């Protein structure tokens, strides 16, 4: 793998040298490819356009990110920002590369979570958009537009991850292909109108499955904190090390979102029936609420407290989008009609 890693580092160096003036654009793209963006940005937008597709976004995000965590624990992928230093191969000819705030993720690098989750989630969205365009226009040319945007965005996300030294090219390719396959399969099994028990069982299954795998690997002498140690050692800015990039943060995020999705459908099966104008208001209010919920600071110590609060945060988010905000807007519009 040394040759593959070395070529990946030189590619990152060439990409940084050639496109450093677009640093802000690369950072924006990598932000839009973050798995959290699926919950915070794509989910509310898509849900108010089509409820089933919105639920599919959460479902596919949770399962694909959980599988990405499992793959990372098993595959032990390096990350460029620490491998450059740990490999000792660049003592005489060090690459001219630099780190950025999103660089210092603490989990293993293979496959890329950004590429994998984005590939899966965007497949759900673009396939729905393509079907809608085809049903309205019967034009295969217009139907192809969402798929073209899909490919372009995946390429941009992958290059952004290489640019900031978060991943090697082969990790991005592996994540993209795996995510595409998951998106195709999971989009056929969307848990719309499923009972709350299904979501409780799925949440517990994801949590206990990850814990059992973690305990089993550690029982056989595998140190699963190795990547956290390396990230802390070689990150150029210590404040770039974030708790929400740790493997257990993604686990609690996914479990919370899964439970929240079940609770939202339990409180209000089928959702609130709203015309297009109130839906626009719902989108604005939901996006504002999610933004502030996500910005609320959480204590990083002790870690268990952080994970519990992080779990609660993502349990609340689907209910804000699917129940609380639409319910408020429904009552508001109903009152105005009565007056």
Automatic annotation (TrEMBL):
Pfam families: PAP2 (PF01569). Keywords: Endoplasmic reticulum, Gluconeogenesis, Hydrolase, Membrane, Transmembrane, Transmembrane helix. Its EC number is 3.1.3.9. It is an enzyme of class 3 (hydrolase). It is a multi-pass membrane protein. One of its GO terms (molecular function) is glucose-6-phosphatase activity. One of its GO terms (cellular component) is endoplasmic reticulum membrane. Signal peptide: none annotated. Substrate binds at residues 79, 161. PANTHER family: GLUCOSE-6-PHOSPHATASE, GLUCOSE-6-PHOSPHATASE 3. This is Glucose-6-phosphatase. The lineage of its organism: Eukaryota, Metazoa, Chordata, Craniata, Vertebrata.
